[in-house]
Amino acid sequence: MTVIYHLAPADRWTTWPGDTPYVPAEFDTDGFVHCTAGDELMLQVANTVYRDVPGDFVLLVIDVALLASEVRWERPAGPELAPLFPHIYGPIPAAAVVAVRVAQRNGDGTFSAFA
């Protein structure tokens, strides 16, 4: 099983209707769901992008084989040596989310782990 991760605000995830495929708030603007692979890289992304964003977050663990939408591994704009990131070009069906992990944060907002 190949899994990728998506970091979501906990309140958006927990209030999303379970019978409707999930899409993040940024989907309409970006056209895809931002994801990554591996805890260490996700911690780097979380601390770079979401450190100053208040609130609780969850890490959606997504089984790529259970997605109906295309997944493209793409390089972000910026440094040429940046890793490839998986982007989902469509919504995430609930069945593809095989686990939900809680993001743990320090008092200064940094992310430290996913439980």
How would you describe what is shown here?
The protein is of the alpha+beta class and 115 residues long. The chain has a single domain (3-114), classed as Protein of unknown function DUF952 (ADP-ribosylation fold), CATH 3.20.170. Helix content is 18%, strand content 32%. The protein has three helices and seven strands, in the order βααβαβββββ. The protein has helices at residues 10-15, 27-30, 39-49, and strands spanning 3-9, 33-34, 57-63, 71-74, 85-88, 97-105, 111-114. The strands form two sheets. It has a four-stranded antiparallel β-sheet. It is globular. The relative contact order is 0.28.
According to CATH, what is the topology? Answer: ADP-ribosylation fold
* Biggest sheet, spatial arrangement of strands: 1-3-6-7
Integer tally of domains = 1
Over all CA atoms, what is the radius of gyration? Answer: 14 Å
Largest sheet: 4 strands, antiparallel
> What is the CATH class name?
Alpha Beta
Distance between the termini: 20 Å
Helical content band:
10-25%
Which structural category do the helix and sheet elements fall into? Answer: alpha+beta
Q: Secondary-structure element order, as H and E?
A: EHHEHEEEEE
- Percent of residues in beta strands: 25-35%
Jot down its keywords.
ADP-ribosylation fold, 4-stranded antiparallel sheet, 3-stranded antiparallel sheet, alpha+beta, 115 residues, 3 helices
Architecture blueprint of SSEs:
Blueprint: E1 3-9, H1 10-15, H2 27-30, E2 33-34, H3 39-49, E3 57-63, E4 71-74, E5 85-88, E6 97-105, E7 111-114
Antiparallel strand pairs: 1-3, 2-5, 3-6, 4-5, 6-7
